[in-house]
Design the sequence.
């Protein structure tokens, strides 16, 4: 029988307070807007507090929580699909590099998540691997593929 | 990789959202594990078994208690309860010294299908405030009695945990909801539980308390004077807006006067303790004034009302959504927007300060003095009319009036009525208040 180590509310609170902006940033990148991102982080931590005893301790607590944040943000995307066209119009107006945004959106989900966790969450390969449930080798390969796709797109955008 | 990072930074800049750990905890706590599991974890199956062996309410008798409690709870759709809380005072007869408690009570009708509450607050049996409003999640007693009590009896998760006597009534204490929560102070889990006491005679709730590891938090027990579930037709949701203190604003202040102006200011011959009392000289007379105000209100309907409802019900997580909707309020099934405050005419009264005075730091005149409240003092306040603002302006603003010849003692003050003058005495302790009340005489 496997015994759960469990996480304490205090540990989760420390994580929440220390890394809230990073959680929101990744969740925003996944969910498409900051409000949904913040809601996703809230939902994820509610789940984490409720299910803290099921944390088995066989990986970093941080990765266990990151997985919940990413899943909560993905849920938000599927729940809020109908409003997507409106948000895209807004981003045009904001002048953000729309071709790049589109390219990122068209990347396979695993590549996108790996990029976000690497650059927004600043996680190392090991933590990303634990979060996404893959090996560190897969993280490296996925990042390489994402970089290659993005670089070619950036070059085209600058021409 | 720098170009990739810069591009990503541009697309999703640093977030502006504020963290709110309390909101996380609030939402996480209500849907914790069931009471049965909590108890099993907290005390272990062995401990539960021991409870059944040694407790006098064991076995089938215990089941009988909960069954009878369920039957006594009734099945009407509206909850009607009268609570007696921790606020109140002591009425003292000035001649005989006889004392009796005066309680604050609240009578509540709650219709869960509309989430509607009608609440009447009384002090000494006199209505002080009356509101009809949508229930908020913070009303712990209502939540416990409606959401937790009957369902726990129905599902069999309620547990009898002891016998007791509350206000002379023999009771069984029942845990209707329990959670194991971590305390950041000691990093240990503690049982937080809502307990309800039922009469051993009627099996109806007569008290409730919130416990941590089985001890009442703050030693507070909320008494339940009446408990019933009734039909919608029997319930009272009419309310009296004139008795509502919701949205009432209060302003008050005072200015020094000559003692010779005291009668004119009060509009009545004042009472006092003489030029000196208990070694404290009368050093300042003041004209005290106060006024109450209510916000202008406009009824909001249609899409705007729906937007306000969505915003308010979304709670703390909808901060951005609500930012442009200040002053909105839902009462009953209606939505209002608040406008500016409309003030009532000023009420004036007299205040006599016995004690030391010193330099008034708010003026530049050397001759101006201000009462030194940090040194021994007694303050006597009198008025001939009053607003009902609960106890916001001291006990003399209660709708309740102590009978002739008696004084109502509340923390730090006493309240009495003499010859149509409403008098409040503030002193260091109860003994000083009573001595001062007995020494009152018309100003000569």
Sequence:
């Amino acid at each position: 029988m496997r015994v759960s180590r469990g996480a304490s509310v205090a540990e989760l609170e420390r994580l929440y307070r220390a890394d809230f902006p990073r959680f929101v940033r990744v969740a925003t990148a996944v969910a498409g807007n900051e409000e949904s991102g913040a809601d996703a982080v809230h939902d994820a931590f509610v789940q984490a507090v409720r299910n803290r005893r099921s944390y088995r301790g066989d990986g970093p607590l941080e990765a266990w929580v990151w997985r919940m944040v990413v899943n909560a943000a993905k849920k938000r995307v599927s729940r809020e699909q109908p409003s997507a066209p409106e948000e895209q119009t807004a981003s045009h107006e904001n002048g953000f590099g729309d071709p790049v945004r589109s390219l990122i959106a068209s990347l396979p989900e695993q590549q996108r998540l790996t990029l976000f966790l690497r650059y927004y969450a600043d996680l190392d390969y090991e933590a990303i691997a634990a979060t996404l449930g893959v090996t560190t080798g897969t993280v490296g390969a996925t990042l390489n593929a994402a970089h290659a796709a993005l670089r070619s797109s950036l070059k085209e955008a600058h021409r | 990789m720098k170009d990739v990072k810069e591009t990503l930074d541009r697309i999703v800049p640093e977030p502006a959202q504020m963290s709110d750990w309390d909101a996380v905890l609030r939402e996480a706590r209500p849907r914790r594990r069931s009471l049965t599991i909590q108890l099993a974890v907290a005390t272990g199956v062995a401990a539960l078994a021991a409870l059944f062996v040694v407790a006098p309410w064991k076995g089938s008798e215990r089941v009988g208690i909960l069954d009878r409690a369920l039957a006594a709870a009734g099945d009407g759709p509206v909850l009607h309860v009268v609570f007696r809380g921790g606020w109140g005072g002591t009425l003292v007869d000035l001649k005989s010294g006889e004392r009796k408690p005066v309680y604050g009570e609240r009578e509540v009708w709650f219709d869960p299908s509309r989430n509607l509450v009608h609440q009447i607050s009384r002090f000494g049996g006199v209505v002080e405030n009356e509101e009809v409003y949508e229930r908020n999640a913070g009303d712990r007693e209502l939540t416990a009695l409606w959401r937790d009590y009957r369902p726990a009896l129905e599902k069999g998760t309620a547990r009898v945990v002891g016998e007791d006597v509350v206000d002379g009534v023999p009771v069984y204490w029942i845990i209707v909801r329990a959670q194991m929560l971590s305390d950041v102070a000691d990093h240990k889990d503690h049982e937080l539980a809502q307990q309800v006491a039922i009469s051993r005679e009627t099996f109806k709730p007569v008290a409730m308390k919130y416990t941590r590891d089985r001890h009442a938090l703050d030693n507070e027990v909320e008494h339940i004077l009446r408990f019933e579930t009734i039909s919608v037709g029997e319930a009272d949701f009419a309310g009296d807006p004139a008795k509502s203190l919701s949205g009432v604003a209060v302003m008050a202040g005072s200015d020094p006067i000559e003692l010779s102006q005291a009668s004119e200011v009060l509009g009545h011959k004042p009472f006092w303790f003489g030029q000196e009392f208990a070694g404290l000289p009368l050093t300042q007379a003041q004209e005290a004034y106060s006024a109450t105000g209510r916000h202008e209100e406009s009824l909001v309907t249609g899409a705007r009302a729906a937007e306000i409802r969505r915003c308010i019900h979304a709670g703390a997580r909808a901060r951005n959504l609500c930012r442009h909707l200040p002053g909105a309020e839902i009462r009953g099934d209606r939505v209002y927007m608040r406008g500016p405050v409309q003030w009532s005419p000023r009420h004036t009264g007299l205040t006599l300060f016995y004690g030391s005075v010193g330099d008034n730091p708010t003026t530049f005149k050397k001759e101006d003095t201000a009462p030194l409240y940090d040194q021994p003092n007694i303050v006597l306040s009198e008025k001939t009319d009053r607003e009902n603002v609960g106890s916001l302006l001291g006990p003399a603003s209660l709708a309740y009036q102590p009978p002739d010849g008696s004084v109502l003692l509340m923390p730090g003050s006493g309240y009495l009525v003499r010859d149509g003058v409403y008098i409040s005495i503030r002193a260091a302790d109860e003994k000083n208040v009573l001595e001062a009340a007995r020494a009152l005489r018309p100003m000569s």
Notes: Residues 9-31 of chain A form the longest helix (23 residues).
